[in-house]
Design brief:
about 35% strand; about 140 residues; alpha+beta; TATA-Binding Protein
Length: about 140
């Protein structure tokens, strides 16, 4: 008798938004600029650790976090580390800003515009249609 296997697809809800940021500045310099622009208090927290399925060597990506009084959370995550990229298909992106809270894509447009107005930011945009394996990395 053959076993029937059921797989859950898209199990991870879109409870967060990701903004891709390209900038040649360091992570602490960008976090400082975001703090100034939005009156946030991003502080360095533990690295985001990703374990790739192939070689098993952990990858560490720097992370700065802040939670506001309205229960929104902001995480600035480096896309590059010494061991590779957090999202390998986005090698031209330097940072990812994960925003958790009651935000729609329309609500994020003013945020993206303010990020783009930072002198050393090249571009910023909402990341959509990530692969399932990449979505899983940002569930924390």
């Amino acid at each position: 008798m053959q076993k029937k296997v059921h797989k859950l697809k898209d199990f991870y809800p879109d409870a967060y938004q990701l903004i891709a940021i390209a900038s040649h500045q360091s992570d602490y310099r960008l976090s400082w600029a975001l703090n100034q622009q939005f009156n946030w208090h991003l502080t360095q927290t533990g690295d985001l650790v990703v374990k790739p399925p192939k070689d098993g060597k952990d990858q560490h990506f720097s992370r700065f976090s802040y939670s506001d009084p309205q229960d929104n959370a902001y995480h600035l995550i480096a896309n590059k580390s010494q061991d590779g990229f957090c999202i390998p298909s986005m090698t031209n992106i330097d940072f990812l800003l994960k925003i958790t809270g009651n935000f729609t894509k329309a609500d994020l447009q003013p945020v993206i515009e303010k990020i783009r107005n930072i002198d050393f930011v090249i571009t910023a945009f909402i990341l959509e249609n990530l692969k399932e394996k990449d979505k899983k990395k940002f569930i924390f």
